[in-house]
Amino acid sequence: MYSCSIVDLALDFVPDLRSVHWRRRIPQSDNSKDRLALYLGIELEVEQEDSNNGYNFLNHLKKIGLHKLYSVSDECSLDTLDGLELKTIPFKPHYFDKLQLKQVCELLKQYNFYISKHCGLHIHVNRNYLSLRGINILCKLIYLELPKTFKKLSRRKVFDWCNFSYFHINTLGEFVTIKESALYITSRTIEFRFFQGTLDYNTIKDCVDTVLLCIRWAKLLERRRVLPDLSEHFLTYVSQSKVPVSKKICRLVRR
């Protein structure tokens, strides 16, 4: 396994991410406001032609000082011997640019990594950011209200490992998902699994912005006693956003 230690995260420009471990995926802090803050984590699956590329890529990350922001593992869901998964540390939304993902994507291309139809882009959000009601609202939007829209946003043609039908609603009215679900609710994170992998920085940014729009929209509604029409309310919310992907989402919802 290719690995890079990310336990020591004493990063000068990200002081509030100290003691955050990606495996736990939620900040360990005595500050209650920080524990309930919004954190993201990105997992990008890539293919390679040479098994040595992982070592070379990781060494290059160390040379340019980015090795504390990422870990590289050959433990991923790809059914190939040459699949790798690149993981970011947990980060707050406004730290996205600090990850220098554009440079990292170009570096992956330089070492002949590529994206196949099986590769996914998985984006995690800390589960404790939303209440149980907020999670249910998010699931209703993605699974019941606008599944066709999110399938188109995913850029995927095959949904074997991120199926929009792999869920059920239990007797308490809660959504229950599995690892192969499009939106996987784990004990610690909400995992958006349906995006197709990519080495295009702008596309990754659009996917992250899509996740942020969904999560913040659900957060806005979770304390409302009476819910509005979810599709219409989401469309209005997105249309007021200034992020580039909002126009694409609105166009797809209106179809």
Question: Top keywords for this entry?
Answer:
255 residues; alpha+beta; Alpha-Beta Plaits; 2 domains; two-stranded antiparallel ribbon; 16% strand; disordered N terminus
How would you characterize this protein structure?
With 255 residues, the protein is of the alpha+beta class. The chain has 2 domains: 15-114, Alpha-Beta Plaits (2-Layer Sandwich), CATH 3.30.70; 131-153 and 167-182 and 200-254, no CATH class. The chain is 35% helix and 16% strand. The protein contains 8 helices and 8 strands. It has a 6-stranded antiparallel beta sheet with strand order 2-3-1-4-8-7, with helices on one face. It has a two-stranded antiparallel ribbon with strand order 5-6. A hairpin with a 5-residue loop joins β5 and β6. α4 (132-145) packs across α6 and α7 (230-239) runs antiparallel to α8 (245-254). The chain is globular and about 55 Å long.
Please state the CA-atom Rg, rounded to the nearest Å: 18 Å
The share of residues in helices is 25-40%
Task: Determine the number of helices (DSSP H or I, runs of at least 4 residues).
Answer: 8
Report on the biggest sheet: 6 strands, antiparallel
Shape: globular
Could you tell me the strand content as a percent range?
A: 15-25%
Task: Round the mean pLDDT to the nearest integer and report it.
Answer: 84
How would the blueprint of this fold be written?
Layout: H1 32-35, E1 40-47, H2 53-63, E2 70-73, E3 83-88, H3 101-110, E4 120-126, H4 132-145, H5 147-154, E5 167-169, E6 175-177, E7 183-185, E8 189-196, H6 201-221, H7 230-239, H8 245-254
Antiparallel strand pairs: 1-3, 1-4, 2-3, 4-8, 5-6, 7-8
Helix pairs in contact: 4-6, 7-8
